[in-house]
Amino acid sequence: MEHFSGKIYTMGDDIDTDIIMPTEYLALPSVEDMKPYAFSPLRPELAGMLEPGDCIVAGKNFGCGSSREQAPEVIKALGIRCIVAKSFARIFFRNSINNGLLLIESDLIDHVQEGDVMDVEVGRQIRVNGATYPIADLPENLLEILDAGGLVPAMRKRNGLE
Amino acid sequence: MGMTIAEKIIARAAGVDTAKAGEIHVVTLDYMLSNDGTTHLTIDKYNNLKNPHIADPSRLVWVVDHNVPCDSVKTAQSQKKMRDFARERGIDFYEGEGICHQVMVEKYVRPGQLIFGADSHTCTYGCLGAFGTGVGCTDYLYAMVTGKSWVMVPETLRFNLTGTLRKGVTARDVILTIIGKIGANGANYKAMEFAGPGLAGLSVSDRFVLCNLAVEAGAKTGLMPVDEVTLEYLEAHGRKPLACYESDPDAEFAEVYDIDLSEIQPVVAKPHFVDNLALVSEVAGTKIHEAFLGSCSNGRLEDLRLGAEVIKGKKVAEGVRFLVVPASRDIYNQAAKEGILDTFMEAGAIVMNPNCSVCWGSCQGVIGEGEVLISTGTRNFKGRAGDRNSFVYLANAATVTASAVAGEIAEACF
Q1: Where in chain A are the domains?
Q2: Least buried of A6, A65, B289, B370, by fewest C-beta within 10 Å?
Q3: A64 has a chain B CB within 8 A of its CB
Q4: Which helix (DSSP H) or strand (DSSP E) does residue B401 occupy?
Q5: Which residues of A touch B135 (CB under 8 A)?
Q6: Which ranges carry the Aconitase A/isopropylmalate dehydratase small subunit swivel domain (chain A) (predicted)?
């Protein structure tokens, strides 16, 4: 099972897709162009601070709002390794898996601070500040999609097109 | 054990006898809606496939509604990409016709259908007894190529409606009150089913907004049984039901709520969350800079009539922009015939063509730093309608219009 460590950036409840990627930047030609504006209504400086491998830890209902797939796409493009939240909005959940972005449901936000480093064993547990938090296993079909990097590459693999 | 409406529709679409909450089924989709918010991305992904193919183009409906008329070279190019692709492949394509969900309800949706839309407010179609749900463009692409997708059968929250609404109180107040009660994720992954004797007194327009805003409580869809009101609407629009479902008496609900419509008050959702509820009277006097009467939630004839009744013979307050945006061409034409658009224009409103407008914070009417918008739109998230430091209050058509006249949040008097 996959194992990695990442620096934590914390966020609150109800982080909506307009915060993750505001409407005014959706017309930009590519997700790469949108990266500097991710989370800008809430934390305009954040996108410039994030480094590949960092993780987001948040409260309930992460990704609520619109179905814009640019939201998980831009988070992935920024190199975020995974999002740990108390709960995820359903369209965002599907969109994230379909883009190969790992989501973990946990109340970790109640136990950590920004800047902490967490150690994740996918499907098993998270360790941070000496404490261990169990996390749910992922169904095999979702793991297959995540491992391939998203739904389209997973279908390609399955159909023998890679 | 009996089945809920959600379970029955999914069972039909999956070609099985029964479906139960929590099961995952592969379903054939009746329609797949997409709009100019994301279709260009779907086309890019489609063109990158090794064997691009559309299972059944007659099941795709594409609507340009988010930026109409387009406001930049970038949106012109993305709309051209969508238009050309749709024409080449015989996909039903609309622009200037109205907001996608209004167009779907007016022209396509039939009771019993299962419909995906690349837009979160696809949950609206329960107003005609169909299961609509929002997806992103990768799920849309998969559905477009295969004609199918997978769905987890949702649990159902049942709302038993009784009584009738007071004058000046609308279905928007009902759904905002419910969201305020259960929270912005109170129905996450679930279906919200509205039923009970109170439903008979609600028009398709009222039912539309109840289902439309279900996603603001996190719901997968909003649903309703089919009754005479539904059948009359279908008849008037030249369509027949595919299948008429209601939940069985012994169906299992995750939760049942009783809602007495006669007790509902005019409410607002305060910035920056749809569940941040207050009575209009609690925020009355808050200075506004713009008012918006429109969107797929509340840009229908009933809303325009209500607004016109409030503003007739009065003027929009000095320094306030009042945008009136009918949700479809049919609504626009009918409102023009009834003299409603004249009433708004004479009062000093700005009447615009059917489109999503400032509800999604692009194209028309975006607000600047520190400005306050009162809106019949769908969301009031931080920055949703413009500057990151602006403020959106959601309210019904009467409150929005009364506020446009007062220059501050005000309750309409009838």
Answers
A1: 3-158
A2: B370
A3: yes
A4: helix B397-406
A5: 67, 91, 94-95
A6: 56-105
Q: Do B188 and A61 touch (CB under 8 A)?
A: yes
Tokens standing for residue B2: 């009996």
Q: Which of B65, B381, B394 to mutate to test the interface with A (most CBs of A within 10 A)?
A: B381
Total count of residues recorded for chain A: 162
Nearest CB to A98; choose among B75, B138, B382: B138
Residue B237 one-letter amino acid: H
Q: Considering the entire predicted model, what is its pTM?
A: 0.97
**Which of A64, A150, A156 is closest, CB to CB, to B138?**
A150
Q: Tens digits of per-residue pLDDT, B7-53?
A: 999 999 999 999 999 999 999 999 999 999 999 999 999 999 988 99
ipTM of this complex: 0.94
Order of strands across the sheet that contains B290-294: B277-279, B267-269, B391-394, B372-375, B290-294, B321-325, B350-351
> What would the pLDDT profile of B287-317 be if each residue is shown by its tens digit?
999 999 999 999 999 999 999 999 999 999 9
Nearest to B288 by CA among B321, B246, B326: B321
* Cα→Cα distances B165→A53, A114, A152, B52, B266, Å: 53, 48, 48, 51, 10
Alpha carbon B249 to its chain's center: 29
Q: What domains sit in chain B, N to C, each tagged with a CATH number?
A: 5-261 (3.30.499.10), 267-406 (3.30.499.10)
Distance from CA of A35 to the nearest CA of B (A): 16
Cα–Cα distance, A162 to A154 (Å, whole number):
9
Exposure string over B106-118, b if 16+ CB within 10 A, otherwise e: bbbbbbbbbbbbb
**Across the strands, what pairs with A4?**
A120
Architecture per CATH, A3-158 = Alpha-Beta Barrel (3.20)
